[in-house]
Request: fold
Amino acid sequence: MGETRVVADGLGFPESTRWRDGRAWLCNWGAGEVLAVSGDGEREVVARLAPRTIPLSIDWLPDGRMLVVDGPQGKLLRREPDGTLAAMADLTTLGRPPFNELVVDAAGNAYVNGGPGIVCVRPDGNVREVADGLQWPNGMALVGDGRTLVVADSHAGQLVAFEVADDGALAGRRVWADLEHAPDGICADAEGAVWVATVPGQRCVRVREGGQVLNTVAVDRGCFACMLGGEDGRTLFIAAARWHGMQAAMNDGPDWTGQLLAAPGQPAPHAGRP
Reply:
């Protein structure tokens, strides 16, 4: 495993890390930016929302258009080829904002969580609730050829799994893993393990179903999200920042301690979605 290095510094609250087209992507909470960052730290602002937009998450449709969750407004936005953001769905029909994380399956169904539940947005914009009863749903990943949705329930300290039906419905809820620290963003690898970022734990841990911790990457601040990427898919990109609580974040904004970190040489490459 290589040494963890800083790819980008001076961010707000970096979240929703992704890997696409040879770059690491993230949502820069506090600045209202969606950033694409090259290996040498060069940044491109791909989309802009209001500066205090928290939460904010991204993923892509099969046709390559990026989806953006505007958490406070409760809207799922779609980035059009000309760069404009168009409303794809109003999520408030099924719950109160804020809405949080996002993952899109191979058929273009977008799963968005917020409050105690998860909604599924079909490609035609139809919205329906597919799960409820979670304490604080956070990062999500589709694993097992997209047949299982794993959700980080932060306040429960668990990864929770659902089986995905052909029509996008979720069933068969089970605890995938109990965790020592509250989970935030997650991603999966080709050996069936899940990497979990944790803010209070100030680390990312690689766990197998059942909760066994296989690997750990510790840092000096809260870890909000993680994503495997790089040329070989084995670099763990970590979104990290100092965190003083949601009330401070909403009232005071970020203190610009956010970083995008890269930890190369992980045991298995990326798999699943996002």
Q: What stands out?
A: The first strand starts at residue 5 and ends at 11. DSSP finds one helix and 25 strands in the chain. The radius of gyration is 17 Å.
